[in-house]
């Protein structure tokens, strides 16, 4: 395999893991904020 | 009261910490992205190929900063856990537990990039070398902390149990660091030294230093974002959380 293929593989894995680390807490935060909003909605009288 | 102590006390309140994390996570990420771009450009296109390892040495520009982060984050996690266990400071528990996935991510980067570098250089993806094996144990310790934290319903008890594991796990940190000096190992010894001359030429050093700073800023951004989520999950029924996020569509 060409040495640049190894370089691309390593940097690709790095980028993928950074993307996960960046997106995972953002998605979790959205879910948590939504849960707070829904809780308030349930408390309000109809 | 001393202004610094007062600031720490105030930031320790969940509502203030939420605002603090929301404010500082984004700038940390933006700076980290800029430095990552500059550092990766330098590593891939600016520095010349190594005279022995050829082009594959460029992998070390992500491998080395990730390896340093994997150790540094574990020490921070253990320190925060110790503070949380002794003084029962909730924010320290959150920072410790938020550090675990970030540390696991950097450890995974270290192991993957090391394997990908090892194939063209050593002729193998993996060998049961002391440095590699102790780094793999570090990943298992991170996963153990994360698993233990998720396995217990009571969040405070879960953080205490997982924090205890993190403190015990610090035994592995010097083993990873000194594996190359204590044992005969395939892994190369120290190339860059904080004190004394480095074996790496200065012209090849700047992308590495840029990426070292970038990964640290990334950790700050990520740990603040993750700690903010854990904080909000625990505080979702509190008045401040309802007032701040209750009207979010």
Brief descriptors of the model:
heterodimer; A: 46 residues; mainly alpha; 0% strand; B: mainly alpha
Classify the oligomer. Answer: heterodimer
Classify the beta-strand content of chain A into a percent band. under 5%
Write down the secondary-structure element order of chain A.
H
Query: What portion of residues of chain B belong to β-strands?
Result: under 5%
Number of discrete helical segments of chain B: 9
Total number of domains of chain B: 1
Q: How helical, in percent, are the residues of chain A?
A: over 70%
The shape of chain B is globular
Radius of gyration of chain B, taken over Cα atoms and rounded to an integer in Å: 20 Å
Distance between the termini of chain A: 66 Å
SSE arrangement of chain B, N to C: HHHHHHHHH
Count of alpha/pi helices of chain A: 1
Biggest pleated sheet of chain B: none
Which structural class is indicated by helix and strand composition of chain A? mainly alpha
Amino-to-carboxy terminus distance of chain B? 41 Å
Number of strands of chain B: 0
């Amino acid at each position: 395999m060409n040495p640049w293929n190894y370089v691309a593989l390593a940097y690709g894995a790095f980028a993928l893991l950074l993307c996960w680390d960046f997106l995972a807490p953002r998605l979790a935060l959205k879910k948590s904020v939504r849960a707070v909003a829904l809780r308030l909605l349930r408390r309000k009288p109809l | 009261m001393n202004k610094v102590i007062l600031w720490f006390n105030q930031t320790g309140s969940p509502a203030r910490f939420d605002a603090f994390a929301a404010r500082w996570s984004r700038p940390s990420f933006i700076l980290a992205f800029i430095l990552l771009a500059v550092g990766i450009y330098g590593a891939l296109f600016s520095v010349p190929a190594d005279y022995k390892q050829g082009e594959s040495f460029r992998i070390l520009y992500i491998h080395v900063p990730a390896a340093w982060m994997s150790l540094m984050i574990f020490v921070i996690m253990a320190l925060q856990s110790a503070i949380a266990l002794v003084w029962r400071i909730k924010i320290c528990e959150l920072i410790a537990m938020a550090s675990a996935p970030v540390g696991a991510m950097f450890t995974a980067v270290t192991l993957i990039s090391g394997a990908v570098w090892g194939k063209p250089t050593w002729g193998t993806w993996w060998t049961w070398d002391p440095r590699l094996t102790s780094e793999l144990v570090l990943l298992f310790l991170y996963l153990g902390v994360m698993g233990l934290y998720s396995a217990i319903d009571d969040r405070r008890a879960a953080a205490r149990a997982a924090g205890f594991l993190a403190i015990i796990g610090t035994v592995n940190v010097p083993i990873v660091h000194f594996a190359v000096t204590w044992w005969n190992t395939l892994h190369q010894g120290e190339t860059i030294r904080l004190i004394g001359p480095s074996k790496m030429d200065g012209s090849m050093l700047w992308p590495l230093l840029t990426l070292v700073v970038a990964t640290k800023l990334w950790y700050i951004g990520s740990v603040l974002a993750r700690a903010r989520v854990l904080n909000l999950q625990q505080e979702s029924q509190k008045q401040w959380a309802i007032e701040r996020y209750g009207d979010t569509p």
